[in-house]
Every structure is written in C-alpha cells, then in structure tokens.
Specification:
It is a single chain. With 494 residues, the protein is of the alpha+beta class. It has 2 domains: 257 residues, no CATH class; 216 residues, no CATH class. The chain has 10 helices and 24 strands. Strands 2, 3, 4, 5, 6, 7, 10 and 13 form an 8-stranded antiparallel sheet that branches. An 8-stranded mixed sheet has the order 16-15-19-20-21-22-23-24, sandwiched between helices. A 4-stranded mixed sheet has the order 1-12-11-14, with no helix packed on it. Helix 9 packs antiparallel against helix 10.
Length: 494
C-alpha cells in the first residue's frame, strides 16, 4: 500500500545548534519539555508480571486487536521480550513501561520498544516504536540536541475504534512522543556519556529532562492492507524551524507516549548493584553460608582453609565453590593464585588463632591484591567501564567474626592499586608488627581502614557479618576522628 507522509511538525527544535551539548543551557531550555514530575525505575519483566498494576495493563494489550484485526501476539506483532530491565516512568498522570523487544529476524540497524502506558483514568494504551538511527548504533550517535538522531516508526495497538474508518483503513494518526534523556554528563565520564543519553538506573533525578514532538501521517485511500506501521520521522540533528501547520489529531489519542528508550547496546547504563546486596547473597546461599560456618570450626587449627567461588559463565550469579588447598610445606598459606581468572569472582578464607599461628586476625595487603587481580581477570572482554565490580569479594573469618572486603568505587580502587599499593603494603605490615597479633579486633579494624585511606579514598569497603548471620554492617573510617573506632553503618539489605 502506498502511503503519504503529511507534514511532520518538529516542535520547539532550536535552529543553529551545530554541536552536541551535554548541559541544559539556557537556549536549549526553550525547547518544549514534558513538565510533569517523574520517577524512573528499572525492573525485570518477570518481576513486573508480579505487579498487579502492570499485569492488568499488559493483559489488556494482549487482548486488543491490531490494525489487521489480529491479536498482538499474532503474526504481525510477533516478538519476544528481551532480557533487559524495563524502564518504568511514573508521572502525575500515568505510568509508562518501556520494554525492549526482539523479532525472529532482527534488523541489526534498528531496535524496537513496546510502550505500555496506563493512565490514572484507567485507560491503557500501547505502541511499538521502531528506532532507525542515522549513524551506527552507539550511545554517542543516538541522541543529539536532546532528541533521537534518526527516524522512528510508531505502530499503535488499537485501543480506540475511532482509529479505523469504515473501510478498515487508518485515515489519520497523530502521535506525541516524549523522550526522556539524562544530562548527567561530566568531563571524567567515559566518552559514551559525553552526550545526552537514555537514563540508566543511576541518573540523578535533577538531570532528567523530557522533550516532546508531534508527528502525523495519513494513508492513501487506495486498496491494500493497512497493516504497515505508521511512519514517524524526525528527531536528531539540528532539526528545522519552518512554519509548519499543526496536523489535526483524528485518532482520539490525545495522550503523549512517554518513554525512555531501552537500547540493545551493552553500553547502556545498567542498574548498579551495591556491595551490601551482593554480600547478602552469600548468606542467603546455603552453600556459602555453610562454608563460613565450616571455617569457624577450623579456627583453632594451625592451618588456613578457604573456599573459592565460580560464577556462571558470562554472569555474576554463584555457581560452584571449591576448597582451596594450602601450600604443601606451608599450611598457613593458601594457593590463592590458582583461583584467579576464568569464572572465579571471590573466596572465603580464615586466619587461624593468632597465639599459635602468628597470623594477624585482619586482612593483609596480599588479600587486597588478590581481590584486585580477581576483578581484573574476570570477564576480560568486557570494558572496565561496563563491569559490575560489586560482585567481587573476599571474606576473612577470625576469632572476632567474619569480615569482607568489597569494591565500592572501581576507578578509585584501580588508581589506589597502581599508585598507593606499595606504600599501603609497607605501612600495614609495619603497623601490624607494632601492634602484635593479640591486638583487639577494634584496633585492627581501625588501623586497617586508616592505612588504606591514608593518602586517598581506596575505593574499597570493609564489612562485618552480624552475629546472627542475617546481614552485614559496613565499618566506615571517620577522617575527622582518625583515632576513633570505625563507624558502624548497617547495610539494611532486604
């Protein structure tokens, strides 16, 4: 079927913007933006199906008729839900769910989102938006001047019979697409975040801005099927500012499509996990919890014991744990080097009673180095900027309890290891020699934190397992009172 595009109205695009800007400058602020307060969250599709509000809206979509009088999941709309977090946008008037979808035969030069929107009035709308960028798919090239840099097609899923005339062909469709972007760019960010980008889980609320544009299309009255998607072009580049007539909205759809595009790209910012959340997994996992209890039973022996953890391939989920052997002639030294690389992401170990073994009941500098090596060697093909460093861990069981070290800030940790590790190792070993192995646990905790933060933030955190083994607490160094005991900060994980 032939179809003709009516004039496309690009609202409020600024003329003369010939460069990419990452800040909301005064001139850009004149562009029309969606003014409602909003909250953006990222939830897996499986979790959303347990949500009554979403499941009610989504079930309506499944029951609606497409433009070819077929159900959504029939041939025309056949797709699968991609394994990507759903972006949930809550405003004062509606809740929007943006879902990445895949086809049996995907176009490598485009991506598609299903947007299910539930209005506070109870009405549910659904649209499929296909994005075709002008340039190769990178975050840098997707969004320019606060808009999508390419063409879009919008395929509405019929929720209003007024969309279709008596001959079962669309006569006129106007859609307002409001695209939400993040403007949290900073000079030290990786290159892909030097431009406005689709908001990840960590975009500050103050950095979120949504701009809208209205576009329309009509179909010829000639024969053929009306099953083709509705073309919506525009978005990106410098846009245009000509005097264009605003097309009349005959669709009955006066509600804007509010969306934050979900990209296929791996570079898209993903929700960050916290060290506390990852530590909680250890005590919620029966095998790892038993492993810690097993180490407690060996504390009175003059020998080190430990367990190394493998993750599932290309994942951070725990798979197997392996007993760590000690050196044949040195029972107080574990062969930790055998558990670096591959799928290894962490380990448990103990320091035996100090009175007979001479082992200091606190992490050594070599322990910190091992954590660094494990994190660096795991998933080596993934750029460091995209790695989830919260998953790596090393626990230490001693007479006073079980501790853990975790990576809180990867760039700081990498800087620390490259510039301060030697002085840290020397200072820690000298301090522990001065204190002696029988020093109180609180003293060792304090000195460990003081030395590891002596010159700069090391980027790692020190945690202690609560006595009831239900959760963890972070031990925080207080630079204002460096000689005081560490501040205890509850993890409060669920």
């Amino acid at each position: 079927m032939k179809h003709k595009l009516k004039k496309i109205l690009l609202l409020y695009l600024l003329s003369g913007m010939l460069f990419v800007s990452c800040s909301l400058e005064e001139d850009y602020a004149t562009k029309k933006r969606y003014e409602e307060k909003m909250k953006i969250s990222h939830v897996s599709f499986g979790e959303l199906l347990k949500n009554k509000k979403f499941s009610t809206a989504y079930s309506k979509v499944l029951q609606q008729q497409s433009l070819t009088n077929k159900t959504v999941m029939e041939e025309q709309y056949q797709f699968t839900i991609a394994n990507k977090p759903v972006k949930v946008i809550e405003t004062e008037s509606a809740t929007s769910y943006t879902i990445l979808i895949n086809r049996a035969i995907d176009d490598v030069n485009s991506f598609e989102n299903l947007i299910v929107q539930q209005l506070n009035s109870g009405e549910t709308t659904a649209n499929i938006i296909k994005y075709v960028p002008f340039q190769p798919a990178t975050i840098e090239s997707y969004f320019l001047n606060g808009d999508f840099n390419g063409n879009r097609t919008v395929t509405p899923i019929v929720y209003n019979d007024n969309l279709i005339n008596s001959t079962n062909k669309i006569t006129n469709i106007c859609s307002t697409v409001c695209t939400t972007l993040c403007y949290d760019c900073k000079p030290n960010y990786s290159s892909e975040y030097q431009t406005p980008h689709t908001p990840g889980a960590n975009c500050p609320t103050s950095s979120i801005s949504t701009s809208c544009e209205q576009v329309c299309v009509t179909y010829d009255d000639g024969g053929g099927s009306s099953s083709n998607p509705i073309d919506i072009t525009g978005g990106g580049g410098t846009g245009g500012t000509g005097d264009l007539d605003t097309p009349h909205n005959d669709s009955g759809n006066n509600n804007p499509i509010v969306t934050a595009p979900v990209l296929e790209l791996e570079e898209e910012e993903a929700p960050k996990k916290t060290p506390c959340e990852e530590l909680k997994k250890l005590i919620n996992n029966i095998e790892s919890k038993d492993a810690i209890s097993n180490l407690e039973e060996h504390l009175l022996e003059d020998k080190e014991y430990g367990f190394a953890y493998e993750a599932l391939p290309n994942s951070s989920d725990l798979d197997e744990l392996h007993p760590i052997e000690s050196l044949p002639d040195e029972p107080l030294k574990l062969q930790m080097g055998n558990y670096i690389g591959g799928n290894f992401i962490g380990a448990n170990h103990l320091h035996p009673r100090p009175s007979t073994s001479g082992a200091v009941p606190m992490f050594a500098a070599d322990d910190v180095a091992w954590l660094f090596k494990v994190a660096k060697a795991h998933l080596p093909d993934i750029p460091l900027s995209q790695k989830d460093f919260s998953v790596y861990f090393l626990t230490l069981t001693v007479g006073s309890g079980t501790y853990a070290i975790k990576i809180k800030d990867a760039p700081k940790f990498y800087t620390f290891m490259s510039t301060n590790y030697v002085s840290f190792k020397y200072g820690l070993e000298r301090k522990f020699d001065d204190l002696g192995v029988m020093a109180f646990a609180s003293v060792l905790e304090k000195e460990f934190l003081k030395i590891i933060n002596k010159n700069a933030d090391s980027g790692i955190g020190l945690y202690q397992l609560k006595e009831d083994k239900t959760d963890w607490e972070e031990l925080v160094f207080n630079p204002l009172y460096p000689n005081s005991d560490p501040v205890i900060k509850p993890c409060n994980t669920k």
